[in-house]
# Entry
Amino acid sequence: VFTEEDKYGLYSNLLFKYFLAEGIVCGHDLFVASAKEHPDKILKELPAPLLDDTHGKELGDEATAVKSEDFQDSMKIAWRYQNLPKMEANPTTYTKFGHYYDVSKKMSPELCQSVKWHSFYLYEELSFEPKIKAWNMNSGYARLLQSIQRIISQEGFDGSDPQKKQRNVLRIGIQSLGSVLWGDDVCCSDTPEDPHSLTKFLYVLRGLLRKSLSACVITVPAHLMQNKAIMERVTNLSDMVVGLESFIGSERETNPLYKDYHGLVHVHQIPRLNSLICDVSDTKDLAFRLKRKLFTIE
Amino acid sequence: QGQFTLLRDSRTDGSFLVHHFLSFYLRAGCKVCFVALLQSFSHYSIVAQKLGVSLAAAKERGQLVFLEGLKSCLDLLFGEGEQPGEPNPLQFLRLCSPDTSFMFSSGSSCDLRALFDFVQASLAPGDGDSWKGPVLLLDDLSVLLSLGAAPVAVLDFIHYCRVSVCCQLKGNIVVLVHSNEDSEDEENELVVNSLCHHSDLILWAEGLATGFCKDVHGQIKIIKRLSLRQAAEQDLVQIYQYKIQDRNVTFFARGLSSAVL
# Structure
């Protein structure tokens, strides 16, 4: 899943954390990679899940708030993931996938520690002596791929360990890929030195994901990319592409149509896997807003 | 026979055409070499099953040679070592670097020769083969550019394939490319335009200009390039709209979708 970052990275960072938080609540293993901040720091700032008894009330508050405004076609999209949580004591009265989170509270350290997680912080990795084979790719990317492949193989996410009784999912989150911090100049030059590194990286990553039980969310500062051709290629190599456009500093901030929202969600591409058709939703005009506790997409 | 068909998509996903041709040629009893660069074998297998064809069975009886690009790439980069005599078809990934893309150094060849050798070997008639005509199917060509192959190398590869498959073996080739009207990917546009000129048949799937619609998923332009074979002939262009369903695609004349009538 490919997320085009909003201009200051505020909201894409939030989505990134949601993805990781959901992984912890579902008991998935995590792999977090960043060149910007240490993954430990990212994991300390995940939103706290709203557990059932408090959640119903919260949702009730939100629901009434929405109804009082006249949105006939509005649709609340919760984060939809495959597994329902095992920790639910009571059956819920409504069907839901995924969980809700309280953005104003941090996830407890105990919950964070409850899953196995792996981190990749570029600066720490570069200090190790390189064992890079001739890969013909930006060394930061190559290192990241090797690290991911090692975890997938060692932890048995590719089914290589028949002894393992319970198979788990690996959630991979990669922050700000393509930015200068990764050693790539696709985001600062119209004619980058190595225009194929990013796309080669994505292709190899795709191969790794396809042969293992893993899912990956990548955020990219697409607004910095001057070479649009590369963005087109990146889109073709991804299963799902979502762009976030925040209203901060843009003329839309004062547009009365958008007064309740903080930005727009552009769904550029949806996955078409294992099927001739893809799941097409009725509406594609989506906007998001961040309230004190809840991030909503409508 | 000996036909080069170009599948093209703009603003939409034309892979339903690939699925169609794959099951079509297998059902017709042809030997198929499928170079699948972007999706896994199981993806095509599941869809083919819905269309009534078993890819696994076709592979087993030697009718289908399937190159799973993603897997080959992993073997190339993470593999222990090459088996002697069997170079990896995607070895250009390690050989092509930004500086050698546009010049040909003496030792390593930054071209798609290994991929062509693979195709040629797959479709070479074997003893006891009773298949009707070889077919090369490729999904999708635009990926090769993303992996560092130069446009010239891609066009050379296609040219060699045509000579071998269409001319020598009297087989067919079907290739999918992506292209958008306002695309800034000049390399891709170059490849697509060149291929258009040399295709016998072009199937161009386009998303509707008016945006997304539930009942009409897109429009398909069928261009029979009669001008290619005979100088005075005009190309024949037909346009239909289509809707993709779980096991089928329905085509209808423009504006005559069943939802409208």
About this structure: Chain A has one domain: 2-48+96-244+269-284. The longest strand of chain A covers residues 214-220. The CA atoms of residues 104 and 194 of chain A lie 41 Å apart.
